[in-house]
Specification:
The structure holds two protein chains of two kinds. Chain A is α/β, with parallel strands linked by helices. Chain A is 51% helix and 13% strand. Chain B is flat and about 75 Å long. The chains are: A alpha/beta, B alpha/beta. Chains A and B meet through helix 4, helix 8 and helix 11 of A and helix 2, helix 6 and helix 9 of B.
Chain lengths: 316, 440
């Protein structure tokens, strides 16, 4: 049985409530505006389409994806006539789901132990917090977790992950500040292997994706892990801040170029009306959004499911 | 989809080419492109709409003079309008009161603590005696972070082990009075604008501390939500100014325009880098230029002035005039340039170059092999490059891990440069700096 079977247990009611609560703001704005726009419309006039465009763009969906969604809806409506607002809403929902799941791919189930995750992203997106929450998630599934403090650059970053490791009660490999991050990553994977860990999570320093030297450093950190455990890191998790605008696309592109990102985590979704960036990114990149952060508590990290995300956007 | 605004406009302006005047009809496509470009640059949808309407009104009926293309005319209107919107009155930060209290607020991860460190360094360099106060009592190791930064810039940090930010800040002000600190910078925890409890906390801090200056720190990569966040913080705090962070990224920073428009508060600082001196005063014209991709010559010149040592420059100039410029001087110049920061950033500031190099990787390491070659020369060779013969070049190539071809190329470029200096001297030219071979 693979690791992702643990992840894929269907969300129970309380988790669902949490997701609903975390997305409250996104939903209330998206749904509220949409219903208002749809009411009394029996055909897709320009006013409605303009309004739909505005709703999607102000949710950070991005111009390109917005245009695609609208085109799909127009095509669909010209094919299957609809009778009322509910039906139109249903069609829109299906078109959005269709668009983003066209690109979503199944995760291969890794058999290797330890399963090594490398966490990357620009400054201040919430990498270390996400690692703390992830460690907690795995630990609650009965897995043995080892963390690696390879952000040796930002002031007090090592202290920050140390506090998380104590809070969640998992082991941490650290060589202090200003140590070579690649050597910390190497040692972390080595230690994880020796200790029979199930999951190894390596933190890295935040860096802007246009700094070539820092991106090269990241590639190197990634490379050395493979020397300890073949195929490591099995997952490169890019953390994106949900309030980031169109620059998120460039981040995804550049980090993928440097480290072959395999999954995305979207943080701070509870604070923004703009969860729409998830739609844009799912549509444009072949990288699945895997986790979403919807709160400040240790448990506020959830496995992302595109379909239920879109559905929850439309549920009242 | 990441071409910059100016390349988008270039394309949009094509539809205006050859038109005698700007009319509702021929400008429609351009206006649409401008709006889309602004939205792609993260300007709020509504603000982009209003903005393009204003631009359209100003443009309508204007005659396209033969001397300027319609594109240039529109660029000018767009640029002027952007400058006006971004600018307005900028007051310097208020440091009256003893101590003057500066409250820092913003979302999680926007860069408040890093900015606090930079601001304290900036104020210290202006002859103030600042005190940093650690009021982020929530995030793990936040207090350690500000302590480390304080140590780096040589500014004292006040912190306590209690969980009450108001009490900590009040004690810090008392501490400042006793210890002759005349500015107190209160760093606070990141908070979401919809988090009622946390927003109450920051309102309380304002009420109890009566700060002279409240600065709202915002990530320049923020998307459409920038308007809501800025508005919520402003409703609660009525802040005095905005700080834009992480401008060293490649974001076009449309959020700046949204925020400025919606709260009408000046952008007082821009922060661009992890080094403690990467803090600049905001210049609306430069920001407009940045959004439009028109380069930033003024910034480049100022950066150069800050970095280049006047005396050193005079000495070099003299050497150039006497045609004694040698490899040692060359190496020194390279180091000066490197001190100015990321080469690509610098190049991007030159008009026209920004667009040309947006997809080219210019590495700060591009100088490395040049450096290695020069460092592998003896001091005789450096001062008198004419002695370089085949066997010497071979030795240098080996020593620097390069090839003789590369050594030859550098020596050739160098002698070309000397020749150019010579002819410049002959013409009596008073160019300040010699031309540098940027390419390897």
């Amino acid at each position: 049985m693979g690791l992702f079977d643990f992840f894929k247990k269907s969300p129970d009611e309380s988790e669902k409530k949490q997701l609903d609560k975390g997305l409250e703001k996104t939903r209330s704005s998206l749904l509220g505006k949409l219903s208002k726009a749809i009411v009394g419309k029996s055909s897709l006039d320009d006013d409605f389409l303009d309004e739909l465009e505005e709703i999607l763009i102000t949710s950070d969906v991005g111009v390109e994806t917005t245009v695609k969604i609208i085109e799909r809806l127009e095509k669909r409506v010209s094919r299957d006539k609809y009778m009322n607002a509910e039906e139109l809403q249903e069609m829109l929902k299906e078109e959005i789901v269709g668009l983003i799941s066209e690109n979503s791919q199944e995760n291969s189930i890794p058999e290797s132990r330890p399963y090594v995750i490398m966490v990357v992203g620009v400054n201040g997106v919430g990498k270390t917090t996400t690692i703390g929450k992830l460690a907690n998630l795995f630990k609650n599934q009965g897995l043995k977790v080892v963390l690696g403090a390879a952000d040796t650059f930002r002031a007090a970053a090592v202290d920050q992950i140390k506090i998380w490791s104590e809070r969640v009660d998992v082991e941490l490999v650290s060589k202090g500040m200003n140590a070579d991050p690649a050597s910390v990553a190497f040692d972390t994977v080595k230690y994880g292997k020796e200790q029979g860990a199930d999951v190894v999570i390596v933190d890295t320093a935040g860096r802007l994706h246009n700094k070539i030297n820092l991106m090269n450093e990241l590639s190197k950190i990634k490379r050395v892990m493979d020397k300890q455990v073949e195929g490591a890191p099995h997952e490169v998790l890019l953390v994106l801040d949900a309030s980031t605008g169109q620059n998120a696309f460039e981040q995804a592109k550049q980090f993928t170029a440097a480290t072959e990102v395999t999954a995305l985590a979207l943080t701070k979704l509870d604070g923004t009306a703009k969860g729409g960036v998830v739609l844009g990114i799912s549509e444009q990149f072949n990288i699945p959004v895997k986790y979403i952060g919807v709160g400040e508590q240790m448990n506020d990290l959830q496995i992302f499911d595109a379909k239920s995300f879109v559905h929850s956007l439309f549920e009242s | 989809m990441f071409e910059n605004l100016s390349s988008r406009l270039d394309r949009a302006f094509k539809s205006l080419k050859g038109q005698a005047s700007i009319t509702e009809l021929n400008v429609a496509e351009t206006v649409k492109e401008i709006r889309r470009a602004l939205v792609d640059a993260d300007v709020s949808y509504k603000i982009a709409k209003d903005f393009t309407n204003t631009v359209k009104e100003k443009a309508l009926g204007q005659n396209v003079l033969t001397s300027v293309s319609p594109g240039q005319l529109m660029t000018k209107i767009v640029n002027d309008e952007l400058k006006e919107l971004l600018g307005g009155e900028t007051k310097p930060i208020n440091l009256t009161g003893n101590p003057a209290v500066i409250l820092i607020a913003g979302l999680q991860g926007s860069g408040k603590t890093t900015f606090s460190g930079k601001l304290s360094k900036y104020l210290k360099s202006k002859g103030r005696n600042p005190l940093l106060v650690a009021c982020d009592v929530y995030r793990p190791a936040a207090i350690d972070q500000i302590k480390v930064l304080g140590e780096q810039v040589g500014v004292s940090v006040y912190s306590e082990e209690i969980k009450d930010p108001v009490a900590i800040a009040q004690n810090a002000i008392k501490h400042a009075k006793v210890n002759q600190h005349n500015v107190v910078i209160v760093d606070t925890a990141g908070r979401l604008s919809i988090d009622e409890a946390m927003m109450n906390e920051i309102s309380n801090l304002k009420k109890e501390l009566q700060p002279q200056e409240i600065l709202f720190v915002v990530d320049s990569m923020t998307g459409q939500d920038a308007v809501n966040t800025a508005k919520n913080f402003n409703d609660r705090l009525d802040f005095d100014g905005v700080v834009l962070t992480k401008l060293d990224g490649d974001t076009r920073g449309g959020a700046a325009l949204s925020i400025k428009t919606v709260v009408n508060k000046p952008i007082k600082f821009v922060s661009s880098g992890e080094k403690m001196d990467a803090l600049d005063v905001f210049h609306p014209d430069r920001m407009a230029g940045r959004i439009l991709g028109m380069g930033d010559v003024v910034s480049l010149v100022e950066k150069a002035q800050e970095t280049f040592d006047e005396e050193e420059a005079a000495r070099l100039q003299k050497k150039m005039r006497k045609n004694q410029f040698d490899f040692d001087d060359f190496l020194q110049q390279l180091n000066q340039i490197k001190k100015m920061g990321n080469i690509k950033d610098l190049m991007g500031m030159i008009p026209g170059v920004g667009k040309a190099i947006k997809d080219i990787d210019i590495d700060d390491d591009s100088f490395k092999s040049i450096e290695a070659i020069i460092q592998s020369m003896t001091s005789e060779e450096r001062q008198n490059p004419d002695v370089l013969d085949g066997s010497r070049k071979q030795r240098i190539a080996k020593g620097s891990g390069t090839s003789t071809t590369e050594v030859n190329k550098l020596v050739k470029q160098f002698s070309d440069m000397r020749k150019m200096m010579k002819s410049m001297n002959a013409m009596g030219g008073k160019k300040r700096l010699g031309k540098m071979p940027f390419r390897r």
